[in-house]
Amino acid sequence: MYATPLDLPDFEEEVVTEALVRFLEPRGLGGKAALITLDNGFDHTKPTSFGPGGLKNLWRALDQVEAEDDVKLIAVTGKPFIFLAGADIKLMPSLESREQGLALAQAGHSLYKRLKDSAVPTFAFVNGTALGGGFELALHCHYRTVSTSARGLGLPEVSIGLIPGWGGSQILPNLIGIEKAAQVIVGNPLNQNKMLSGTDLVPLGIADAEFEPADFLEESLDWAVKVATGAVTVERPEVDRDVWPQVIAGARRLVDEKVHNASAAAVRALDLLELARTATFEEGSLAEDEALADLEAGPQFQSSIYAFHLVRSLGKRPEGAPSPGLAKEIGKVGVVGAGLMAGQIALMFARRLEVPVVMTDLDEDRAQKGLAYVRAEIDKLEAKGRTSKLKAAKLRALVSATADKSVYADCDLVIEAVFEELGVKQAVFAEVESIVSDEALLVTNTSGLSITAMASGLKHPERLVGMHFFNPVAVMPLVEVIPTESTDKETLATAYAVAKKLKKTAVGSADRPAFIVNRLLGRMLAEVTGAVDAGTPVEVADVALDELGLPMRPFALLELVGLRVAWHLCQHLNEDLGPRFPASENLRKMAEAEFPVFDPEAKGKGRLTDEAKAQIALGDSPSTAAEVKQRVLRGLAEEIGLMLDEGVVPSAKQIDLAMILGAGFPFWLGGLTPYLDREGISVDVTGKPFSA
Q1: Catalytic residue IDs
Q2: What pLDDT digit, counting tens, does each position of 8-52 carry?
Q3: How many degrees, rounded to 5, is the angle at CA 67 between CA 66 and CA 71?
Q4: Which of 109, 164, 220, 521 has the fewest C-beta atoms under 10 angstroms from its C-beta?
Q5: Looking at domain 517-686, which CATH architecture does it have?
């Protein structure tokens, strides 16, 4: 049994986090305040995280505090903008056995317990990012303050195949109640790994006070002195234990609906949350130790490590991007169209670039409806505290709309978001090119049409590039960047630079039909609908991929995309790529139906209405769910092989990154191509693994 971090074996750590102790004597305390600052060797480029070395350093810092006389309060904070980003995931592959993982879990509990059980009041001054083990460190302190500017807060472990293993699953539900805790620990990680911000923590009951960033440390220390001396009393509401069973039952239904119980970590996290109702903290900690050790040694976490590093490396340094120094400055943006997608794009550009954005549409009424949508979204951001009153006013002033396209004359970038028809887009660019300056960039948001064909009639085809954003634009982190053979380096560099400023991860694609994500999703849906056409009942085909834990079942995806849009895409793919993408007659009937196709009482579960079932013509060769799954995976392997041969992307890693960020493929699959390698499908279909 590893009792303390000092018993841990040493691992090779890139940057060891220091725990720097200062002893202060603030007015009114009547003694000393110990302020411990976590800092990874003053390397401002790297988030502070804990490996064995950091755990040992904090242990020794607490020893130093305990040896000091007259300490009245202990506070822990971080370097600027970072509190603590949790355990160092880069060290996890160094764990050679389950026993070592168990030792690391126990060491964390032993260390944090010193803060929880301290006879001297302990405080966490959460000045910035606090994730996983960092968030749990704050939870172990008796009191917490948070900076209103803090971003990246939460317990994201479930998203990478783990559980909060240093006390989070036991402390949080007993602090804020089981419903909120289940959302933070399970719901948020399964919802695009949603993070909390500083202004969320006090309303949730996680933090006791919030302060502005300019004088956060001073205000936090003054507040802590008042708490330690009894001048301020912190009251917390009693947790309702009667609702525990029904909340856990509801959370289990959510995990079934979201990922079809394919996430071992989500299931295990709910077990721990259920245990927290009656277990002592020691009993809960032991259960966390065992769960963390099991999951660290399991296949889902090991696969997640690949996906995690992929997002961090390729996501920051896009493969094939020109030098950022070639990028042009963007001072004004034009958006052609004022529909839903155009409105989302306009708001995103205004929020992230903070430049004037003007939308146009066919008439003034449509243009003003689009502007009203943008302003309503800004109102929501302000009401939820996600933007300040001042910033909201600035955004309203930045976005405008009109039917007069002459407003594009001084735009540096014009992006179209109109109907997905090649002729329509060609007409748009022909008109816009006659208005804009010779230096302005032209951008298409097409989801799969030929950009080369769009450029064919332009006088300056070199300044056209594709930037395919995914819906909903504010949430989805991916943008596919698609140059043509004519696109010049300055235009391409600017597209990547703009994507970065928009806080999107850019993945490059050649100008081939449907690019990356939609081509593979199209192939997946083609195989599923093909199985239905052959005779497989919809309810069987729809659950065939459940064990992958995809965010949506196939028919729920069809419902979200819209049957007419799906049929439109199906036709294009059939025309461009041939019989691998058959034009399903059943899909056509569903798209053209004048009656409800999906049962409104079973939204998202692929249940068709009786009228829709009556229209579907099934063949006489039904498949089992397992056979449909194999059919889909083999189809995906074939398509990926063809995409690599065609040069759609330079490597399989870019396909993995695009599918994780654009289609929600879970981290625990470790990327689509490694999954197909592990299943032996890639070798069987293409003759070699994609990792070769």
Answers
A1: 447, 468, 480, 518
A2: 777 666 678 899 999 999 999 999 999 999 998 766 667 888 888
A3: 55
A4: 521
A5: Orthogonal Bundle (1.10)
